[in-house]
UniProtKB/TrEMBL annotation:
Residues 1-30 are annotated as: Disordered. Residues 1-12 have a biased composition (Pro residues). It is found in: Cell membrane. Pfam families: AA_permease_2. One of its GO terms (molecular function) is transmembrane transporter activity. This is Amino acid permease. The chain crosses the membrane at residues 38-55, 67-89, 110-133, 145-164, 176-196, 216-236, 257-279, 306-331, 352-369, 381-398, 410-430, 436-453. It is a multi-pass membrane protein. It comes from the Bacteria. Residues 13-24 have a biased composition (Basic and acidic residues). One of its GO terms (cellular component) is plasma membrane. InterPro entries: AA/rel_permease1, APC_superfamily. Keywords: Cell membrane, Membrane, Transmembrane, Transmembrane helix.
Amino acid sequence: MSTPDTPVPSEPEGPKGHGDRTKPGGEPPLKRALGPKLLILFVIGDILGTGIYATTGDVAGKVGGALWLPFAIGFAVALLTAASYVELVGKYPKAAGAALYTQKAFKVPFLTFVVAFMVMCSGLSSASAAARAFGGDYLGEFTDAVPPTLIAILFILALAAINLRGVAESVKANVVLTLVEVSGLAVILAIGAYAVFSGEGEPSRLTQIETGGTGYALLTGVLGATALGFFAFVGFEDSVNMAEETKNPARNFPHAIFIGVGVTGTIYVLVALISSLLVDSETLSGSSGPLLEVVKAGGVDFPPKLFALIALFAVTNSALINIMMASRLCYGMANERILPPTMGKVLSGRRTPWVGIVFVSALAIGLVSTGEIEGLGDTTSFLLLCVFAVVNIAVLVLRRDPVDHHHFRTPTALPVLGALTSLILASPLADRGSDVYVRAGILLLIGIGLWVLNKVVMTAREKSGADAP
């Protein structure tokens, strides 16, 4: 991770060879191993997951049969912000993503810390939503003997154990699970194609918007459904952290991010259309495994238990990625003395950041103990929408900081629209529950408390050093 509290190094950043020279202190740079095809697959795999498998029903509960509409709007909002990330990662092809861009644009270390901590917490709330989905109706196809909250807690502990064992094991598991979750969505698309050609389903549902009112109530209902549906699109922002391990990032990232968001967005809208076509919104909203209901209603002899198993693998993959990301962010911030140095301790032998893993896992257990899929998914969206608003503003501020290499430049209107739409969806206009703001606020207060504690300790150490004879 980059150093939010420290000025960004002024090494060359050209599209070829930038950052390839030895870093200060004699440390070698990260290996540039990701080519364009692998980068596209990474972006797609990072976005696909819990959002579509778990929150389709909750979105249907907010908006009714036209549940494809929030996903389509979320798709457009994601593209706006993706354009800003593409410009910034091409301009500053380094790891750290939003924290790096915030520091470069505003040079306020506390703001940079808040953005970095919000990104970390969004990963935890996403993993917690996945844990809740794991313990819901998908697992219910096999057993309902264990309380869902206990299952979710055990699930988080199992992911912590995988992370403690090593990053190689985590990445290998991620590759397998990504292939499995893609196969599950392919099953839904195949069932939808069969339904369309055989005349199954109820097309009239696709235009039904049921938000419990008209005018303002209709607007806030659709915005609320969109904010929740936006949870399905998070993930592309993580890919910019691979900038230092990507070949020619200024050239390859625009294609990878736009293709990745485009492919996943198209799949999500199609899955939403198929879900509404085959299953009424009341049934979808009453299930924590909504796509399982689609499989059962599709008229295709596909074993529900097999699809439930695929879905369990899919939500596991999302949670694994997010726990791993959050623990590494915690480790990086500790190494940069932004969080207490103790949180950067590494497990001897396994070389994994054990304190960071234990800390983020404890927060995740707290989250799954106090929230359901809808609230946790909406918390993820809220945190990242706030971050996206900052990033969209940062891209405009950084226009006054030219670099000496060619990079993608998004039309000015797009980050302006991206900032506005992100702020609107993060605002109370989106009709989200107060628990979302409380949960996000508590997480942020924990982070600020650690930041203040670290400042006090570091100041005391510096003072004692200055007073020593």
